[in-house]
Design goal:
alpha+beta, Chloramphenicol Acetyltransferase, disordered N terminus
Length: about 450
């Protein structure tokens, strides 16, 4: 990146944004990468304070006002924050409808399905539905090119803080950092020794005879309906997940990733890498800590390839200790973008890695709106590749929900339904007190038909 104009001028796209720009350029007529949440807010709601808090949060989150233009004179696409593109908070009273919630669902669904032209449309919508005296829905929608799931959670949390402040119950807190400051920080990173060290790490890590499949942008098929499953995990799994993670000195999200990876290792095709078999997992990484991005809603999430290997005779404890060490080392180098890794490995322009299977753990608690009951609901998070596992829950590992999404061309319906049954059962079995010192093959055998030799 170069020629970054801090004072509101045109700025380059990040590598992550360019990926979505290429997607839009290849499929301009499809609403592919919409991200949308809504908060269900019930209680003693101060409507004026809520509208005011949403409006200020939206103004602070300047990425929601971004406009894009195609490059000129050999330059790539550019972006700038444009106040004329700022989303206006629309207050919609649905109390007169026979079923206010159903009407809100209809309106939100229509907005999620609408096309978004990155060069002409406002890229965010903010709707506040009044369903009754004590119930409101706040709907947030944007395009993934400007914000990721964690960015939306930051917006929700900031709004909750401002709402409490306007009701005299909290300090105002700090506004978001500017997007230009992140671009300047990223530009400095790309010219640093750390960038060179990160590049060397990924070059060495991926120096295995393992194929990383590549997807051509123009060849993506978004017309086929996928297979989808979502269900809350039993409270016992949540409790045992936290207890096992504590005893093993592993963060519960990492424990969930590795146990799910062990399940997929036994049920999906692996590749030979010399003296071992590996299954390449794709793991989203927030890539924000130690950066202004920690307090900046934007599209900053990275995706890292993780070569999972497993000796069926090693104990679960040994597998976890070995694997979590690799995860932690990867994250020390996790700012190095997957798009740069693809370029380093000669992936052609308008192509990208095929991110499947992907495991995403989202430990984002609902925001605090001063005594109101608040529940977050996810309406859209963009398309996925092949086979995806997504776990959503509170930051303490409670109230976990498992979502499984699959391409029916790669996973048949019978196999998909087995996954919906077997994965939760496998997790429950692995989280029992006696499982940690048993060979992994023993844990597989009860639930998975696999050759463990």
């Amino acid at each position: 990146m170069s020629e970054i104009e801090i004072a509101g001028g045109w700025m380059p796209l990040t590598l992550g944004q360019l990926d979505f720009w290429e997607e839009f350029s290849s499929h301009p007529d499809l609403p592919l990468s919409t991200v949308a949440h809504y908060l269900d807010i019930e209680g003693d709601v101060d409507e004026d304070a809520l509208v005011r808090a949403i409006a200020q949060t939206v103004r602070e989150a300047e990425v929601l006002s971004v406009r894009f233009r195609r490059g000129t004179g050999g330059q790539g696409p550019q972006q700038r924050s444009d106040p004329r593109r700022a989303p206006i908070v629309e207050h919609i009273d649905l109390c007169a409808f026979p079923d206010p919630f159903a009407e809100a669902e209809r309106l939100m669904d229509a907005d999620v399905r609408a096309k978004l032209n990155l060069t002409t449309d406002k890229l965010s919508a903010q709707l506040l539905f009044r369903l009754g005296e004590k119930r409101y829905l706040w709907y947030l929608r944007a395009h993934h090119i400007v914000v990721d799931g964690y960015g939306l959670a930051l917006i929700e949390q900031r709004c909750g803080q401002l709402y409490r402040h306007f009701r005299g119950r909290a300090e105002a807190g700090h506004p978001f950092h500017s997007f230009a400051s992140f671009l300047a920080e990223e530009d400095a990173y790309r010219g640093s020794r750390r960038w060179e060290a990160d590049r060397a790490f990924w070059s060495e890590y991926l120096d295995l005879p393992v194929d990383l499949p590549v997807l051509d942008r123009g060849g993506e098929d978004y017309g086929e309906p996928g297979l989808h499953h979502g269900a809350a995990l039993p409270d016992a799994i949540c409790r045992n997940l936290r207890a096992t993670a504590s005893s093993a000195k592993i963060g519960w999200p990492d424990l969930l990733v590795l146990l799910s990876g062990a399940y997929l290792y036994a049920t999906m095709p692996r590749q030979s890498a010399g003296d071992r078999d590996v299954l390449t997992l794709w793991l989203p990484f927030m890539s924000r800590w130690g950066s202004v991005g920690a307090h900046l809603p934007a599209m900053l999430v990275n995706i890292l390839p993780f070569h999972l290997s497993l000796d069926p005779q090693e104990t679960l404890r040994a597998f976890l200790a070995r694997s979590v060490g690799v995860l932690r080392k990867q994250r020390l180098h996790g700012r190095y973008r997957i798009e740069q890794i693809a370029a380093d490995r000669g992936v052609p322009k308008n192509s990208r890695f095929f991110f499947s299977p992907l495991i995403n753990v989202l430990p984002f608690s609902s925001p605090d709106f001063g005594g109101c009951r608040v529940t977050r609901h996810i309406l859209a998070s963009g398309p996925g590749d092949g086979f995806n596992l997504t776990f959503r829950g509170e930051d303490d590992g409670s109230r976990l929900t498992l979502y499984i999404d699959a391409d029916p061309a790669m996973t048949g319906r019978d196999a998909f339904e087995r996954h919906t049954r077997d994965l939760p059962a496998f997790l429950e079995h692995c989280l029992s007190p006696e499982a940690m010192d048993r060979p992994v093959a023993d844990l597989w055998s009860n639930f998975i038909s696999v050759d463990c030799s």
